[in-house]
Structures
1.
Amino acid sequence: MGKTIIEKIISNHAEKDVKPGDIVWMHVDVVSARDFGGPNVIKNYKRYYGDTPVVAPDSTYFTFDLSTPAKSIKYATAQHLCRQFAYKHGIRVFDVDAGIGTHVLMEHGILKPGMVSTGTDSHFNILGAIGVLGQGMGDVDITYIFRKKRTWFRVPETVKVKVKGMPEKYTEPKDVVLYILKRFKTSFALGKSLEMYGEYIKNLDMAGRITIASMVTEMGGIVAFLEYGENFKDEFSKFTGVPPGELIESDSDAEYSDEVEIDITSLPPQIARPGAPWDVVDVKELKGVKVDSVFVGSCTNGRERDMETFGSILKMNKVKERVMVRVKPATRKVYEYMLDTGLISHIFKAGGIVINPGCGGCAQGHEGLTGEGEVQVSTSNRNFPGKQGRGKTYLASPLMAAISSITGEILPPEEVL
Amino acid sequence: MILKGRVFLVERDGRLIPDIDTDQIYHNAYLHITDMEEMGKYAFSNLEGFKDFSKTSHDGEILVVGSNFGAGSSRQHAVDCFKALSIKGIIGISFGAIYWRNAINNGLAVMKCPELQSYLDRGLLKNRMEVEVDLENGVVKIENKEVIKCIPLSKVEIEILEKGGLLELGR
């Protein structure tokens, strides 16, 4: 019987044929720890293994992206503890200037399709965007991987998702993934691997693939693999600087636990209401809601194209009075792009600010939290109560974030642009 | 791998309590505690009817729990507090996924036994009864008589438990 993508990747890394439900040891190609979780990994490591060298320093990384640069003594100390451990063991550190760990690992050509990678970030499955089985894990698991370069894993079942049709002109990948969350919440993806197919999916650029893959975390899924289109090899090489190598695809007789179809024909822009990322409605239903602040960034919408979409609208407009706009590129590379193309200047002159690269807008320790009573439109991925501060956070695309920046309201794009 | 011990039923009016989340097992007010021995004091201290759980000895006991045990956060305290009390293992109708992984990683034996409730209902499994838990074969023997069919653990999980946890296995 044929295999799905995840079954093939795990079989390759367990050195035996696996099927859903099997629990196996799986080799991990690349492991990382952040400034969040990293200090506990080091504490565990020293306690159990003392000075024993880390087994594969060349494919072990620290990535600082939570508090960058450190905004409290606690984080400054945590980061320096990681640095000292890393330098002693010959591990590379992507320091506070680098950006979001998962993005940095992809950009540097460290990861290739078919690999397995783990880290202390619950959005590690974002790596599905480039065909990598990425998994966020706790500090005990990551410590063991530092030591042994393997982890134990239950082979999940796979759900086939067919995305049908093409959306409206102003509808972005963020709107599509919010719509998928609205339709299914966590019902079909919980504990499963997803494979997504369709014209729309396979023609996405890298930024779009990343947006969709990142929100599988909110669906409760293990990872999502997106159909490779003709443009994938070019997109990958442009993004990482290296060729992708062989692409793993599912067998024609692979077995799926479920098949679902999602029709996005003429889908208009979507927005998630405060409280849950799956409480999603058409933007026009919230027409006229007043907005105090806007955040653009996060692992979901922090790429060059996201910044381009947002910045090109701000270039010709001014940020509405009394609206606060913060923009946080995902990585140093995105920041450089914004510098070279003038996007930073456009956003700045329109009345927004561009802050340093990294994670943002979704946990304490990040920039871009909201105060009690504040209404925010954010391109991030989570808006559970308290997650982005005390205010009310709507989740939307960079295009919708731009609309709210220049009008101070939630409005359908066709009424503004 | 076989565990022997007396059972402690986490039940209310004869029903194994479902959906006990990690906040009921180990409340977030005590997350700052890092000493494992001290964590024992707060086991179930936020579960209605079990506030005095840690005041009596549970040395060598096997906990019997309901469905979706340990749902919620990923805190390892919710596993360590039972280890601190020298509880040998937990058999339950089902477990939260993260709790299950934390338990194995920290060397606390767990096993899924979907039919547990019916043994309580028929009076075949009562508090303090002696049981033998066979993790490899997925079987619980009650006082050497009744046998409950459970879901066996994988070889990998048993390998980790036998060493006393994932980090011990890395030594």
2.
Amino acid sequence: MTAPAVHRDTTVTRLRKSLPAYAFLAPWIVGMLGITLGPMLLSLYYSFTDYSLLGDPQWAGVDNYARLLTDERFHASLRVTFLYVALSVPLELVFALLVAVVLNRGLRGLATYRAIYYLPSLLGGSVAVAILWRQIFGRDGLVNDVLAIVGIDGPGWISTPEYSLLTLVVLRVWQFGAPMVIFLAGLRQIPDDVYEAATIDGANAVQRFVRITLPLLSPIIFFNLVLQTIGAFQAFTPAFIVSGGSGGPSDSTLFYTLYLYQRAFGSFEMGYAAALAWVLLLIIGVLTGLNFLLRRYWVYSEDEPGGLR
Amino acid sequence: MTRHVMDRRGFLGLGAALLAATAVSGCGGGSGSGLRVAWYGGAPVHEALDKALAAFSGDHPDAQLAAEKAAFADYWDKLATQAAGAQAPDVFRMSMSYFSEYAKRGALLDLGDAGIRTGDLDPTVADSGTIDGSVYGIGQSTITQATFVNRTQVEALGLAVPQPGTTWEQFAQFARSFAAAAGDGRFGTSDPGGNLEIFDVFARQHGTDTFTADGAPAVGRDVLEEWFTFWDELRRDGVAPPADITAESRTFETSTLVAGRSPIQFGWVQQATFFQPLVQDTLEVVAIPAGPDGSLAGQYTKALDFWCVSSETGDAERAAQVIDFLVNDDRAIDAIGVTLGIPPSARARERLAADPSSAAGKAVAFVESISGQVGPPPAAWPQGYGELKTTFQRVNEEVGFGESDPARAAADFADEADRVLSS
């Protein structure tokens, strides 16, 4: 506020003033440079080498990237991963939204229900749940025990190629809690008077949901869609644990990240694995960009004329 | 303006101190002054080796040993990462599957002149650790492939346990008889169609090792196809379990032998001591089925695992002492027993004088009984073996799920072997 202070604010004093801030930021900066950015750049370099993890890397040009074109297991992993994302993300979001809408109706004990439904999200990425899944969907597991009651002799869900990926999709949908909590927060933001006005105008529940809830919630849906899509592409633990690290049976659960891991640590092809990682980054980047491009066609923006506030 | 509770200088000092503290603790885990000894295995292995190393520490009070233990699957990620960062343990257990990988990439120290006594070791075991004239590992156990038979189940159905010399043809007949007599939900054999190590015996019965001494594919595609066909037919006829059951039975606990679904399981001989405690019935250890002539020359005895020293170790002398102790000292032999495999010296086997009716005793007796009839051991498994093992399992699985056929599986494996072994 005082003019003389500005005069005295030389570079040195400014620096001195901001030093404490940098000191507090230091742990993050060190982590960012040393644990994120540094390794990322190094992996970009490795992706152009034949780095084996044990020996010294030799420059290999674009060999690793060229190999992607003919690597059939890589193609298999792409198919599996895209199928997984395409199935699990919409299902998870629909499920999360439905539960959020139900919970938003002023249920008594809302906090408790919210906590219960959120719980699987906290547990979902863990090894323990993946092991549990293996038990539930195993040949002698809970699902088949239930089916046996009605006289169906179920297959080994996780050990049959046709179903193994679906069990992992179910696992992801089961963890709908995180997007649900975000949806709930979004639903709370929609003013009650909008609904009241619509009701007075004779809109029924379905119309209110389609005409009011969905448009006003669309920014939140968009946010969840982007986040869950990225998360699904990066899924690793479920496939690793349920298939015992193999991506089997017969590559039916060979997630992209699992294949990358196999290349890096199973066959010591760290250079190739690094190339895989960068291609995954590219895929996720392109899809996220596409999501943002398509946003204007369906996401309601409050900046536009006719907005609510 | 209120007075600062702490002035800026104080803030800065605190920040710097915190930074320094995190930096120091970050480096703390890496290198100590002692010797790090790492191995993989289950609880019995950990107990055995802890006991053996305690005895070593008793003799060498100045030695500071730090043990690093892991399960087999986790061990390799960790070791590879450590080796990449030049932080590998000084002494570590090495599997035959990855031995060449590490040796050829310069991660292992040549122990040729380290003074480790190997005079008592079986010659085949002592030789197994040599690659290109350098001794990169000291064999810690001897192994051979084996068939585990549930005697109780077999005899309950009025059949006889297959004896060494039983041909594959006769074995298939045995399995068919068992499956027919046992009824629904039970099978005559497990499905080792995807097990490269059992196939190795089959390949050798057809005249070649699976891989040549310099690590190129050796076995013919026709032999591969014959093998995949053999198991495919048994699966189709309900004699071997379908692929989804096999996919769920890859651990000792879930194996078809332990689940009571098959009276037969194939594996390495020392696994008799892992399977037996899991079943009530009596298990026998017999040979892998033989070629048409009934000879056991397809099998071999060989070192399964090695003790290796990191090429980055700071104390090669002490590391060699530890290995020498683990392989030769009576206290180590007693502590280790058969947890690492069948002991690699006649002296150790006699010393253990295992109870002949126990699983360990049967395993030891089996190795002794076939040692005169087996063929020469193959060279160290080639670089890339670990990966090909997985490939072999996958192509057999694809046949089992009807996504491929034996001819294609043979071609797929052979192509992949060409690719992996040429790089």
